[in-house]
Amino acid sequence: TVVGAGGCETTATYDVGSQLSIVDLDNDNLSVYPNPTVENINIELPGQFQYELVAINGEVLFAGNAVDSEVISMKDYASGVYFVNVKSESNSSTVKVVKK
Q1: Are 25 and 31 spatial neighbours (Cβ–Cβ below 8 Å)?
Q2: Is the four-CA dihedral 53, 79, 22, 12 of positive or negative sign?
Q3: Which residues are paired to 95 by β-bridges?
Q4: Rounded mean pLDDT of 60-77?
């Protein structure tokens, strides 16, 4: 219910089918390795998932979809800190990765 400064009132109900949260994927199921890495990052998660490789400045460098596992080549990227965002049907997780 919202009440305006003039006393007008309105009520609305919303059903949220999904939401963003800070709940991570079950760490027993998600593996991102090796970390630190020199060339490749392996992502393993049972089932379908989406992934992104993100630079420290927030730029998405690479994104895709996978089932069960994926290998991301980092050989063309500079040494530094990156993030791997992994999203499944109902959860998401971000893993910090260091490239030597």
Answers
A1: no
A2: negative
A3: 84
A4: 96
- Rounded to two decimals, what is the model's pTM? 0.71
Distances in whole angstroms, Cα of residue 5 to Cα of each of 10, 42, 71: 12, 56, 56
Output the pLDDT for position 28.
61
pLDDT at 67: 96
Q: Which of 21, 70, 17, 71 is nearest to 47 (CA)?
A: 70
Q: How far, in Å, CA of 72 to CA of 50, rounded?
A: 13
How far apart are the C-alpha atoms of 30 and 24, rounded to whole Å? Answer: 10
Locate 53 and state its tokens.
Answer: 């490789």
Neighbours of 73 (CB within 10 A): 11
Long-range residue pairs from 65-70, CB within 8 A, at least 24 positions apart, any chain: 68/44, 69/42, 69/43, 69/44, 69/45, 70/42, 70/43
Averaged pLDDT for residues 33-41 = 95
pLDDT over 90 at 9, yes or no: no
Mean pLDDT of 25-45: 87
